[in-house]
Amino acid sequence: MKWFHRWGIAVVLITSMLFALIQVPIYANGIGITVEGSTIYANGTSFRLKKDSDGKNYIYNLNGETKLLDTAVSPSAIYGGSKNSTVNSNIEIIIENVNVGTIHGGGYSDGTGNADVNGSVVVRVIGNTNGGTIYGGGYAYAQKGNAQANVTGSVKVEVSAIPSTNHGNITCGGHAYTNGAYQAIAQTGSTNGYVTDRTYSIRGGGSAVSGSGAAGYANADVNGNVTLNVDYADIREVYGGGYASGNAQANVNLVTANIYNNTEIMILQGGGQASQGIANANKVALSLNNCSNIYGYIRAGGTAGSGGSANTNSTSLSIQNSVIPADTQFGNIVAAGIYGGGSASGAGANAAVGHVTMDIGNSSTAGTIYSGGETYNGGNATVTSANAYYHQLTGNSFNGSTYYSTIIGGGSGADANAINLSDTQIRVQGCALENIWGGGENSGNPLSLSGNADLMLDDGITLQSLANFDSITLNASLHASMMMGKTLDSPTLLIANDELAVGTPLVYCDDIVDMENTFLLNNGKLDYAIEENQSVWKVGQMIYTIETKASSGGKITETQRVNKNGTSTIQWVPDDEYEVIRVVIDGQPYDITENSCTFTSVRENHNIEVMFRKIPGIIKEQVEVEKGNNSELPDLQVHLDQNLAVDLLTEEDKAIVADGKNVEFNLKMEEVTRIPNPIVQGLKTVIDEENVLLSLDLTFSKNVAGAISPINQTYKPIRITIMIPQAYLDQSNGREFAVIRSHVNADGTITTDILKDLDDNEATITFETDRFSIYTLIYDVPKAEQPLIPPQPDNEEDIPHSSGEGDSTTIIENNTPKTIDQTTVKKVEETLPSSIDTGDQIEYKGYMGLCIGSIVILGMLLVSSKKHLVKVK
Predict the structure, then answer these.
(1) How far, in Å, CA of 662 to CA of 685, rounded?
(2) CA–CA distance, 734 with 726 (Å, rounded to integer)
């Protein structure tokens, strides 16, 4: 017993000591907030941290009225999410008048479990306090395994507090770090950041770091857009994109950054930062308005080093109503450097930009402004194309002197290929500048680039130097102390306003040595002279070009060169059998019925293009009907429209028509006086109490430039109208007429179709057909009449079948076939009679002459008393 008592006391003492050493989480009134030492995990609960009347810090609900935790806290770190656990909620954290070392809007994962926030996050710092280090997303630290701390929704970080010293580093995205083999992922949705007053830095993207030699991968992408607002701030650095170091990635989509309201800024970078890693941005739009001091660097693109990638598809930079001052640094006069592109240092580093747009105006500026990027030691910072507009720029005064900006169309670096542009355009209006160069810059000297460079001067300007342009558009005189063409043997093209009269000085240059061929005048000649120890280029005779072009098949007046305000007439004439199908003047269609155009008071270039073609042949829609063996056959009309006529032509036929040849269609009909036995067998299946008037063999053909070819079947049905002979109408006594089509198929079977009358005219019968065969005109039998005897079949003449299938009988109504019966025709060795040529190329056996056959058929009709006819209503 004493032994048990002594050991019991020991257990109690040891347990008490352990509880004293271990930090036990404190839970906030069942809400879910936990406090571990100096770290707060909100676990998805929104809260406000502020001081109470006792001067201590407490956790309240968002409106600050209800305490969520009765115990005071002194946090050095806050997480809006959980530790190694996912939460599903929107989170808002408000820090009021409390200094917090580090804030993460998302959760914390050390690799033990995921710490995602499935929702949106808002972090606000208000009152009078320093913002500290802030991440809008979570923190994935791949220490014990693969770590994940994503925020699936949007993130907003708003630091409006007034700092006692300055706000720290603010990152709107997530924080991913690995130093070993594990992966760290801390992505977010779209981010939005706001800061004011004294601030060290703000970044719109995330931060992803894979330590030196680490095999693991870090990712802090922003899966959406970035928006930054810097208001009335004194801020050192602003980064629109993400930061990626090592085997890491921190991409963003669209970056929009607004810096305004008397802000002072040292560094502004629109794209991402990549050191070995990848920090690309899709698009960047930077706007600086009413900034009192832009004194460091602005790069609209990204920054890449150590083989990293910080590319951007396009950038847009606007600086308005701001100051880019001159100042001293290490005893030198310096000013900000402005780049429309990015910056790349070291072999393999890429900070390329697609298209750059710049608009800088109404500002006091010194320093150098580049449309391109900058490179060092083998990096690549090319820009595909750039368009820059500078207006109302004045110099900046410092220590009694005024300093002016230099405008450069390309980038900065020793390697021209690394800063090249395929096309750069600069427009200047109302500016006081020191230099304008169309190429790049290397160690303070102009560098010619291979891409095209154009300068447009809206008004007169005086420069220290002008260099490396392909063309310069002038509305007034240009004066430069020094001038340099793009190459020694490539003069710069001057494009003068056409309002400038002959003799008007266009360019003055203080250099007079070998300068005559420095320029050419577009649409005219220059008069060069040396006056008052200056080279002067004046407007000579202005000549404009009217360029003409014509296709084959006609002629047009040759290209004309016309003096300013002159007149020129251009004529065109088609060759025989050709016609004009299109006339285009200066890109606009012109009346093709005209055969000339007169240009008067010519003050610009023109172009005119005429297209001819051979007059195409005619596709006749009217079908010629030929009565082959009996002129007394009923009249027949074929209804053929242009579309169907074209469908009946092959591609070869159409080419012949395009070459001017005509096409016509023919229908030949012949009376069938002796119906072959297989067709009679088919007729028996559909004829019940009907009389047969006559049978016609219809052959349809086309005549293309004299070449006749049969058409046995069409893609679309053709409508045919038969005029019923008057003799049949006189005897009709209320008869209703119809047509039976007997068509021999490719396999030798016969399809018998009843084609109903499609019109309301008693004197005609109209039907549609897509096959040309034997057509039998029939009628129903009035009660007062006795039916005629149909032709008796020749029992020895059967059509052979290769398939063994029976013949089919259908009724055609509105061109829709309906099968009503089938009959099997015996196989025999004999073929059909060859005495009648049908549209199906069926050959029938010979028979004894037209007259004898007619007598036999008539006798059979007279003696027959039983008919198997089907009524056609």
Answers:
(1) 44
(2) 14
